[in-house]
Amino acid sequence: MTLQGFLFYLISAVIVASTGIAVTRRNLVHAVVYLILSFLGTALLFYLLGAPLLAALEVIIYAGAIMVLFLFVVIMIKVESQKELMASAGQWAPAAVIAGAYVLVTFLMVLSAPGAETPLGMLRASPRDFALYVFQHHWFLIEVVSLLLLIALMGALRLGKGRGKASIGGEA
Asked: What are the C-alpha distances in Å from 15 to residues 30, 67, 87, 103?
């Protein structure tokens, strides 16, 4: 195994572990921190696979801007974490069986894939070519995502503002 292959599997393991920990945390701030670790690992994978622009975008947009937005939402909503477990063992068992089956099937597919022995060649695109492609072919999706983020921010503000206060107009 080459150094690049070893780093790929190591970073992938960190991403899977940190995402799994983020999903199972009761404390939302801890979950956001583990998600940031997962996004940074994804950026490292992008860089390792020859896409430095996507790695930079991953850090700037996801690990930076969107995670800060999530932290603001968590702080505004003021959710107190409970000390109890999220679910009983009876509820975790089906999820664990399905996850195990998914990992097994994925592992078997990777081993039996035709041409798995030959490494893929690097594909590089300049930031200019990437931007031209995205904004010529997917401009509408970018606008939809920006609108969804705006609506999510407005909803978080509404949830954070309305807690513990009487609503405007005297309605109770």
From this structure: 15, 16, 24, 15
Kindly state the DSSP code that residue 167 receives in the 8-state scheme.
Answer: P
pTM of the shown model: 0.56
- Supply the CATH number for residue 67's domain: 1.20.120.1200
**Rounded CA separation 136/96 (Å):** 43
Task: Report yes or no on 15 lying in a domain.
Answer: yes
Q: Please, what's the b/e burial string for 35-49 (b: 16 or more CB within 10 A of its CB; e: otherwise)?
A: bbbbbbbbbbbbbee
Residue 42 has pLDDT above 80, yes or no: yes
Helix (H) or strand (E) holding 44: helix 28-48
> What pLDDT score does 86 carry?
59
DSSP track, 79-144:
PPPPSS-SS-HHHHHHHHHHHHHHHHHHHHHHHH-TTTTSPPPP----HHHHHHHHHHHSHHHHHH
Averaged confidence pLDDT in the chain: 81
How many Å apart are CA 158 and CA 21, to the nearest integer? 29
Domain that holds residue 3: 1-80
What would the mean pLDDT of 43-69 be, rounded to a whole number?
Answer: 86
